[in-house]
Design goal:
Distance between the termini: 22 Å
CATH class of the largest domain: Alpha Beta
CATH topology of the largest domain: Aminopeptidase
Strand content: 15-25%
Structural class: alpha/beta
Shape: elongated
Strand order of the largest sheet: 9-10-12-11-15-19-16-17
Number of domains: 2
Radius of gyration: 24 Å
Number of helices: 18
């Protein structure tokens, strides 16, 4: 498809500044608060302390801690000894209150499956990075009660992976939706003094690690914040403008171009599925395309295409949801939030990898203009789709956007396509909210996404693209229906998307679909409050790095 000059579209939505997105700051707390320090600096005054314990022998570990902190009362020494002798890999954190303030001891016992190496791992056991990340959440919650002004991080006995996980976890745990929106006073954060491990290297290397960890946490929190915003605030047109503000913060470089397709352009491009889903809403649909073309590239020279489902609110349409099913439907744009956050992360960090990111934005509302069950709509790729269920709308907005992505040619032809979507309740029934359903037509891509998720604690599990189930998508009146009845709902949804993961000559493109929940029903680990989770950001940021390093290089 020839690249066309696209009209930029603006709405009247106002943002405070490019640095503040509906109250959310893109400036990381960890990057601005964590400072390298000497041992002498960390011993002054009342403080909270985090100490990484790496000595596996309990008696030697206790002696080392007593030398560092002084003698403990007998009852505290007994508790600490009991914790040190525990062999449970889940016993990552233990705390005591000493005369100089609270102390958290962190011990990240290495297991055969939690290694940070590049070797294969077969179980969904937590990695060292994930355990350090979640320990940081517990520490930050404890700090709010302790009200200390200084936090000392003694990571001299830790690995680089442990430190990166903990710093990323501090950034993730620092997010509060109510604070960012001004509904609650902002809690005072302590100054953080860091004693870094020798494996980090010089001061410049340490600063880079702090900045990278903070930026990764900010990206997760950006996706969380977007997902938390009410559907009446984050309309499709407001979302398109917000994407501009986010990317304006990331760079002023000519390497980034943002194009927004309005209704006129969507009609001209035959984006009829996207238009149908958004036809009933007061705020019309949009397609946002962010093109990132850095001058320097890693091993993979071709762009990676990312597509995110951006249904800003889903009533179900005329096949209306019950009130219980509609309650969380502001999160139905969680896939697009992850894509936008990943793009901001790549651009702001100068990732040497070309990207094409697509946000398919619409609100599935109800009015006299609603699309109806039984309607036959021609997709952008020419397939006639009979609407079996208006509540199966996410695959429709993705389908047209995916067709735009795979239609790029020449230097813009993608090396692979990855889509993220809060697509089906069926996948949550099978895997729960913390594990994404991974559907893909490529075994290598499946392995990379699965392993990256293990490493970063952002899990997925491969599900089958069982071709016989495609018969459930047969239509008597069109090429396909948009949804089937009965079992296997997550599989049939993925099979529908697979119809659009082909280039214009019909050849399949390496493609992966992540069916995500994008939400935390309750606090856990670094996520210290329920709400948007930013699912997909941690795992796919690792995957993009692997494209740069050459695991996916094709030329």
């Amino acid at each position: 498809m020839a690249k066309k000059k696209i009209k930029n579209v603006h709405s009247n939505t106002q943002f405070e500044t490019a640095k503040s997105i509906f109250g959310f700051s893109l400036k990381g707390w960890v990057a601005s608060s964590v400072k390298a320090a000497s041992a002498r600096e960390t011993r002054a005054g009342v403080r909270a302390t985090v100490i990484v314990v790496s000595e596996p022998q309990p008696k030697r570990a206790l002696l080392s801690l007593k030398k560092q902190l002084g003698a403990f009362p007998k009852w505290q020494e007994a508790q600490l000894t009991q914790w040190l002798e525990s062999q449970s890999p889940s016993a990552d954190l233990f705390s005591l209150t000493l005369k100089d303030g609270p102390v958290w001891f962190v011990r990240l016992v290495e297991t055969s499956n939690s290694s940070s190496s590049d070797g294969p791992r077969e179980t969904l056991e937590k990695s060292v990075f994930a355990r350090a990340r979640d320990a940081a959440g517990a520490v930050l919650l404890g700090l709010r009660a302790a009200r200390v002004e200084k936090l000392v991080l003694d990571f001299t006995a830790s690995t680089r992976e442990e430190l990166q996980g903990f710093l990323t976890g501090l950034e993730i745990a620092n997010y509060s939706f109510t604070e960012s929106r001004g509904y609650k006073a902002v809690a005072k954060r302590p100054t953080v003094l860091l004693l870094a491990p020798a494996v980090v290297g010089d001061a410049k290397d340490l600063k880079t690690l702090i900045q990278d960890s903070s930026r990764l946490g900010v990206a997760v929190n950006l996706a969380r914040h977007l997902t938390n915003l009410p559907g009446g605030t984050l309309t499709p047109t407001a979302y398109a403008d917000l994407a501009r503000a986010v990317m304006a913060d990331a760079t002023s470089s000519k390497d980034v171009r943002i194009d927004v397709w309005d209704e006129r352009r969507l009609k001209a491009e035959n984006m009829n599925l996207l238009l149908a889903v958004g036809s009933a809403a007061a705020s019309p649909p949009r397609l946002v395309h962010i093109s990132y073309r850095p001058k320097d590239r890693g091993a993979e020279k071709r762009p990676i295409a990312l597509v995110g489902k951006g249904v800003t609110f889903d009533s179900g349409g005329l096949d209306i949801k019950p009130s219980s099913g509609m309650r969380l439907m502001k999160k139905d744009m969680g896939g697009s939030a992850a894509v936008l956050a990943l793009t901001w992360l790549a651009v702001s960090s100068g990732l040497p990898l070309a990207l094409d990111s697509y946000l398919a934005l619409a609100e599935n509302a109800i009015s006299s203009n609603s699309f109806r069950p039984g309607d036959i709509i021609k997709a952008r790729n020419g397939l006639a789709i009979e609407i079996h269920n208006t509540d199966a709308e996410g695959r429709l907005v993705l389908a047209d956007a995916m067709n735009v992505a795979v239609g790029a040619t020449g230097e813009d032809a993608p090396a692979c396509l990855i889509d993220l979507a809060t697509l089906t309740g069926a996948i949550k029934v099978g895997l729960g909210g913390d594990i994404a359903g991974l559907f893909t037509n490529n075994d290598d891509l499946a392995r990379e996404i699965f392993d990256a998720g293990l490493k970063r604690g952002d899990l997925s599990w491969r599900m089958p693209l069982f071709q016989p189930y495609k018969s459930m998508l047969r239509s008597n009146f069109a090429d396909h229906v948009n949804a089937g009845d009965g079992f296997g709902g997550a599989i049939t949804a993925a099979l529908f998307l697979e119809l659009f993961a082909k280039s214009e000559n019909g050849a399949p493109l390496p493609w992966a679909h992540l069916d995500i929940y994008a939400w935390k029903d309750s606090p856990s680990g670094a996520w210290t409050e329920p709400g948007g989770s930013g699912q997909g950001v941690l795992s796919l940021s690792e995957v993009l790095g692997r494209f740069v390093s050459g695991k996916w290089a094709e030329g």
